[in-house]
Automatic annotation (TrEMBL):
Protein's UniProt name: site-specific DNA-methyltransferase (adenine-specific)
Lineage of source species: Archaea, Methanobacteriati, Methanobacteriota, Stenosarchaea group, Methanomicrobia
Source organism of the structure: Methanosarcina horonobensis HB-1 = JCM 15518
GO MF, one annotated term: N-methyltransferase activity
Catalytic reactions on record: a 2'-deoxyadenosine in DNA + S-adenosyl-L-methionine = an N(6)-methyl-2'-deoxyadenosine in DNA + S-adenosyl-L-homocysteine + H(+)
PANTHER family listed in its UniProt record: SLR6095 PROTEIN (PTHR42933), TYPE I RESTRICTION ENZYME MJAVIII METHYLASE SUBUNIT (PTHR42933:SF3)
Amino acid sequence: MPASIRTTYSPYCLSNISDKYAGTPFAPIIVPQGASFKDMVALKGKPDIGDQINKKIIGPLVNENKLSDMPDFNDSTRLGSGKEQVDRLTNLIAIFENPALDFSKNRAEGDDILGDAYEYLMRHFATESGKSKGQFYTPAEVSRFIAQILGIRYANTTSSTTAYDPTCGSGSLLLKVADEAKTKITLYGQEKDATTSGLARMNMILHNNPEALIVQGNTLTDPKFKDGETLKTFDYVVVNPPFSDKRWSTGLDPLHDLYERFKPFGVPPAKQGDYAYLLHIVRSLKSTGKGACILPHGVLFRGNSEAEIRRALVRKGYIKGIIGLPANLFYGTGIPACIIVIDKEEAQNRKGIFMIDASAGFMKDGPKNRLRAQDIHKIVDVFTRQAEVPKYSRMVSFEEIEKNEFNLNLPRYIDSQQAEDLQDIEGHLHGGIPCADIDALERYWNVCPQLRQTLFKERRPGYLELAVDKADIKSTIYEHPEFAAFTAGMNAHFAAWRETTSAMLWQLQPGFHPKEIIDGLSENLLAHYADKPLINQYDIYQHLMDYWTETMQDDCYLIADEGWKAKTSRIIERDKKGKEKDKGWTCDLVPKSLIVARYFVKEQEAIEKLASELESVTSSMTELEEEQGGEEGAFSELDKVNKANVSSRLKDIKGDREAKDEAAVLNDWLKLANQEADLKKHLKEAESLLDSKACYYYPRLTEDDVKTLVVEDKWLSSLDTAIHGEMDRISQSLTQRVKELAERYETPMPQMTGRVAELEAKVNRHLERMGFKL
């Protein structure tokens, strides 16, 4: 990590370490007397602030805790010199003095806001750094589902349960495994890069795992965790190694490896280190151990020595599953990767490998792709249940794998391609929609069997045609009694979930754990929509998770910290000169729009009426200007149409009989302009009055009022709108397909050819009349 960035986040880390450990006996991080963040604050404005931070703060911390790669706060090349350096460091420290950044007491116990803030900084550093430094951070979404598929949540873990990451980077993957465990477990990590290993140690501390043992060194050539002369073994191993490491064997003699990692399987290619890391995992697992490794897809099908290693691993039964991921997920590379899941416990009884092709489930997030909450949940659900889903997952027997010469490339076993939309030649020649295309919409007809008969009629055996006009397809679907009944049923289904959820949310009290709330809510909603026709339960789940991320999460932390209180605050902005400007007020928990919608309906209706009148007058003015804007129009003599120029022109032509039509138009425009100005004034006054009324109403709100506004009007209403939008999506999807098929086959080829010939003859006759001979 660049020194400038380390300099920026060091006050942040010191501030929070001081809050956690300063003065605490036997703390995992020693904060020496005089080296706390408070002591750093005392140095603000001093002419030798940089040198003093190094000597009084950084030096003692480094010595007491055996730290390395700390920033130089007296570096003039990065921080400037003299007053420039003093101002820059003073301002930097002042930023972290802000009470809003005080995470010493998380808003909700068990929700690690401090650690998550650190994760956020690292993620954005990885994003900005690209391939040069992105390798040290595994995206949180990938880390989360890897931790979940290992099944540690359901294991009987204790403090003696061990988890290990041999290329731990900043430790994010290891931490997600720890988060999944029911109890505190023991974490081990090794990282080659000295700076990054320091990041990992800091990450462990800020995520309440200060006992984690993180060491620096090359795992393949110099593994640090050993039992005597053999490798230490662990219950769980997770790793995101450097892809296709071309220098993995530098300093190592693979044929005479002291730890016998390669002897049972074979030596990986000298310029391809993927299997070296995978075999290190296998050797580092206990006989009941479970592991997961992120690797490029090439490990599944490359030949020569890698094919031999792959064959040996399959025959040993160590590979439990393979999960194919979307491309461009990782910061160090854009190529697609896979997860190889190792499970030694059931190796002897294993009959096949469970495979998932999850390459199509993602969303765009800036320059990268990102797994959505629904993608993660689906992968974990399917893998945990070993459920076979068409075009997504299946259990592949060892016999089938052997027939494919131990090639594990996912497309050999899972056809994830969408079925081709075939063209029917007879349909094009003679018209008519093939019955096969309509039969393919079976999932809709299962719900609305009579709708098919309403939309189509037989044209000839095997072919149909529309029984309604194309323009009426959507209304026919949406208004059909069967579809209306389905919609009503889905509305009632959501209403039932809303009722029970509302009762639960009303009971929330300060101090609750927001993460527990969203876990319970999301799982409940997912189960509520399981096996419902036409509705994808994971799409419904995603609506809740999106709303949680955008809005509900922040609200829950506010309530957990402060209770059901709707506090207003002023919006103060500073210009470049530091001058403050009041931009009004706001309330994070209960926005003004909710107060207005519930308590000031008449006032809002009056404002909307004024706004409508204003829009009408403005539109009339625009139309008049367009009609009279030509060379002979009433505004032709004006450089610009405004009140001053129109009034001046009226004075000029006053009494001119020949200009009476022009004067009439100008007077009409001036009348409209005065109406517009009047309406704008009244509208502004009405909005200002409503703004004041709404602001002064907040202190009158009771706790029940706030709960009603937040739970009913804000949270559940927003979810209601999003989830009910799924019904529109369903009807729109069916409408689009029916219309597409109708248009595809509505004009038979002979009729189309005849029409072309007719048009060609017309063109030829026209050309002959113009004197051209064909």
